[in-house]
Amino acid sequence: MTCKPLVVLGSILFISANPMIRAQEEMFRGLEDRAVVLDIIARVVEETAGEVWNSTNSKVTIPGKPVGLRLVGENILVVVQFTPLFKSDGTNVLVALGQIWINVPNEGIRYHTTMQTIPLEFGEQIYFFPLGSKRSSEDARIEIQLRLHPYSEEKNTDPDHPIEP
After folding, report:
1. pLDDT band at residue 67 using 50, 70 and 90 as cut-offs
2. Across residues 21-45, what is the average pLDDT?
3. DSSP annotation of 35
4. What is the SS3 assignment for 87?
5. In what order do the strands lie in the sheet with 141-150?
6. Where are the alpha helices (DSSP H) in the chain?
7. Is the pTM value of this prediction over 0.90?
8. Per DSSP, what are the bridge partners of residue 141?
9. How far apart are CA 148 and CA 142, in angstroms?
């Protein structure tokens, strides 16, 4: 007898969850018009060796929701968040917040933060350097190349990659 109530309860939960899923899908469709894609190319460049590492990603987001990036090296950790914002005057900005931990031999760990508001247009390529400019020719540098474009452009050019809720 105890099995029947459990089966019925499971059916009730499944049936009641179905309208919630539909509501989430409808809400997401409403956000799809505002969705943007942030293309990110992160790379480490050394003066003598050239590009020693790179990574390419595309992340879907909406204005005000940050996209995170974490770079972990032997003696460095870089955590960056990029938040696209659309102003009421029609201009776009990308807020870049970076946190950097560097283990300096014989000195210990150093911590740096950076925050920049970068004006940009859709399709424009911008560069973000979380470590700042190079201090000497031996220093490696981290370059993060960014390009923001509307999700609708991606959807029209790549129908096999739908946005996922």
Report:
1. very high
2. 76
3. -
4. coil
5. 50-61, 36-46, 141-150, 125-128
6. 3-32, 151-157
7. no
8. 45
9. 20
Query: How many C-beta atoms surround the C-beta of residue 96 within 10 A?
Result: 21
- pLDDT tens digit string along 105-145? 999 999 999 999 999 999 999 999 888 766 666 677 889 99
The total of other beta-carbon atoms located within 10 Å of residue 72's CB is 9
pLDDT-derived band at 44 (thresholds 50, 70, 90) equals: confident
Q: What is the Cα gyration radius of the chain?
A: 22
The whole-angstrom distance between residue 160's C-alpha and the CA centroid of its chain comes to 21
Q: Rounded to whole angstroms, what are the CA distances from 119 to 10, 63, 122, 138, 148?
A: 51, 14, 10, 31, 11
Among 81, 165, 63, 65, CA closest to 122: 63
**Using CA atoms, how far apart are residues 141 and 52, in angstroms rounded to an integer?**
10
Q: Which two tokens stand for residue 149?
A: 């474009």
Pairing of strands 67-72, 50-61: unpaired
Q: Which residues of 78-91 are buried (b: 16+ CB within 10 A; e: fewer)?
A: bbbebbbeeeeeee
